[in-house]
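FOLDING PROBLEM:
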Amino acid sequence: MSVRLSLAGPAAPADFAPRLLEVVQQAVTELHPRQVSHIRCTLDSSLERDLGFDSLGRVELVARIERAFGATLPDQTLQTAQTPRDLLAALLSAKGAGAALAPVSVRVPGPEPTAGAPTEAATLLDVLAWHASAHPERVQLIHRSDEGEQAVSYGALHSMAAAVAAGLQARGLEPRQTVGLMLPTCLDYFYAYFGILLAGGIPVPIYPPVRLSQIEEHVRRYADVLANAQTSMLVTVAAAKPVARLLEVQVPGLRRVVTVAELTQSRGAPAGVAIGSEDLAFIQYTSGSTGNPKGVVLTHANLLANIRAIGQAIAVRSQDVFVSWLPLYHDMGLISAWLASLYFGNPLVVMSPLAFLARPERWLWAIHQYRGTLTAAPNFAYELCVHRIQDAQIAGLDLSCLRLAANGAEPVSPDTLERFQARFARYGLRPEALTPVYGLAESTVGLLAPPLGRGPLIDSIQRQVFVREGKARPASPEEPNPLRFVACGRPLPGHEIRIVDETGREVGERIEGRLEFRGPSATRGYYRNPEQTERLFHGEWLDTGDRAYLAQGEVYITGRVKDIVIRGGRKIYPQEVEEAVGGVPSVRKGCVAVFGSPDPRTGTERLVVLAETRETDGRARDALREAISRVTVDLLGEPPDEVVLAPPHTVLKTSSGKIRRTASRELYEAGLIGAPQHSVWWQMVRLTLSSAAARVRRRRAVASEAVWGARAWTLFWVLASLTWLVTTAIPRPAWAWALARGAARLLFFLSGIRLSVRGLEHLPKGEACIVVANHASYLDGPALLAALPPPFGFVAKRELKDRFITRVYLRRLGAEFVERAAALASVEDVRRMSGAVAGGRSLIFFPEGTFRRAPGLLPFHLGAFTVAVRTASAVLPVTIRGTRTVLRDENHLPRRGDLAVTVGAPLRPPAGGDPLAAAVALRDAARAEILRDCGELDAERG
């Protein structure tokens, strides 16, 4: 090969260019094995258009060059290099490998924070003002860059934000107007965000350009977002100002494009603007750059509710140190990392995403140096650390300070969790620090988190059963190829979730369905988009767009309802790529499928473009692939990982003509595209029939459940009516109980609900006792009626006494009524219950006092146990399982399921001593036994 170099500056060593091209060609071969035959690497090849390097691919390429030449390329190489020739120029100016960061322990500077937190704050502005007043010199954040580190105190942040606010108001910003915020990770971002709020505006963070050379093209893509948000100003970098004229044409109402430097030149203080908790704190756009933008409306109340719930779930303290490289235009970086740290008073150490991508070890070294306790990243980042970081780069690293490393924002891979822990355990990483989480912009940012300190929980399930029936049955250790899903925990405090089927009915344990939620963090909808807002809400529940199943209170996310591709933490919407590619000459319009295919090597998804064409000439097909790559780069700023050209009728569609992306992906992953025509068609027919059969099975199952539920309700009301009528004429509670027991057993038998009862031998003979049972459903009463022999009396809430039907029935059963608000807390109720037990009556208590739809054993009230101590009576802990699944609170129809009642061994109150201490000990012992057997989480622990 003969290569001529035309470079300014020192001449390169003779073998640098050939060696560099070898490294690049090898990377191309490994990243795109199916396309390597038509990719030719030269010094002037475009890294994106010609060689197919996306952002992660460029990161890998730079790392290989550094290893091959023993050099450290400048950080901006990732941003500025367009060709191998640019890489060569960067290599010539590179520093030696010894310039990497050294492991030096650094303490976060600044005074200790004032005790407490701004718990009374109603807005983010109140939070900043509280901290700026309480400890203005306290360091709020430390920004790390190639130039070093810059610390910003609460006082300085407040002061700079005020200067930005004054500049915005001087340029005509009115209260409640939106302001676009298009800045990279820099101090200006933090000043501008709060400056917009102080001026009374609404920040609209958008994705900053990866390379300044593409600023105009980038802004064109975001014109729809800016127009939908009705932005009046755009705060950005100086390089974007030349496109102001273009933006003013494309975005009606946009008056100015300004920089933070320009805004802070204004003198004077900003005018005060009344901001309340229900005012917007920012608008988070989630749907990309074209089509129908979806801007999630988030109020100050939403943000503070979510931040406080996250803080409660993971026990955030002011002594924590959060280390982050997450982009600030993304809710995980903006809210979870920065705004939560600002609220709780813990310092944030922040670096740019580019710094992390260039050298992932910087993230880990920052944790080491600042003794970081908290961090977060998408799954791909953990995978990148496993594969990119060399042992020599982290010699002396200590991660023992890290107590929580959240993994979220894209699907969490169990393999990545295991590899990351195995790789970094010897550097002090504790397994319980790895914390899979789940959230979405519509819930502000966070929705699910596991119990603190538990570590990852991975569920292996039977693949075929799950794929065919949607049932997540645990797999045996001998299962050859199980599906594995990671638990993302349970709802944040104050939030609720449910999983529903296609009809909107809540499904049972280990049944896959659509995940919905509600809570104080939930958005009110999408900005100026009523159509999408209507689709988001199902009554008071919001649709996450994800599928999941529930097992013992833990939520397992199984996939997305829509076919969004997540690559490197970024969401890519297939529809817009398909439309753009469909416009390429020689591509059959409407016959393009874009989907993501998991890539275990990177821990994220590969972007695959499957396009039909009639072209058969080799050169023409190569040119077509390049054209498709160019269109994709123009749209997304990144090329696809693979372009697959297929003959006509390969892309699968529904009967109405919609692209079936999942089925097309299965065809691709099975390696059937490009096989002989008849074989492909046969496989496509099989896939189509298989998918159709699965849909039919699921719809049949849904219909069957609905019919069964209606039948069960009919049986209940018929038997309940007859039983009530007969019971009113029965003079003795024991006889009424026997009748009710028979009716309950008949109901379960006719409905096909199997009831198993264990431990009846523990019932004391010849003495009164107290039964305490967990409470999960309205079915708990019938379950105990069917399980326990007479005579017993229920302790019921006083509200039931005010209703004629329930009063008459429960009195016949010998029930005792107590105040609901303070169940057995009053001296009179305790005295009355004690007298009943002393008189020989056995009573059944639900010591939780109530039940809720979310699983979890609630705290127990002391009333039942106080009665037991006073009367020296045995307490029988009774565990009920299955009733929540069969009839969950707020569900209209029951579901099929089995019930189990287990009577535990009697617990005797200790003789003598303090009665209160004895009641507490009895309560704790009974609750511990029920918690062990009920199969639900301990809701008392949050």
Summary: Residues 1-12, 97-105, 677-681, 821-825 have pLDDT under 50 and may be disordered. The chain is about 40% helix and 20% strand. The radius of gyration is 32 Å.
